[in-house]
Amino acid sequence: MVAFDQSTRMADALRNAGKPHEFVTLSEEDHWLSKAATRKQMLEEAMRFVQKHNPAD
To answer: Given a cut of 70, is residue 14 above it in pLDDT?
Structure first.
């Protein structure tokens, strides 16, 4: 499991380095994305990020 403070420190480091990132909190979810709704949310957020920062065209 990744501790929440490790995630926030990583987000801070990316921001300080000027790297594109988005910090998304998945409410009441575990590290394995056991709930279908938050698993779907994670996939949608990841796809949106990739399409924005690394488009196919």
So the answer is: yes
How is residue 8 written in tokens?
């926030």
Nearest to 27 by CA among 37, 15, 17: 37
Residue 10 to residue 23: CA distance in whole angstroms: 9
Identify which of 16, 21, 11 has the alpha carbon closest to the alpha carbon of residue 2: 11
Which DSSP state fits 18? T
Residue 1 has pLDDT above 70, yes or no: no
Closest to 27 (Cα-Cα) out of 42, 36, 43, 38: 38
Note the pTM of the prediction, 2 decimals. 0.79
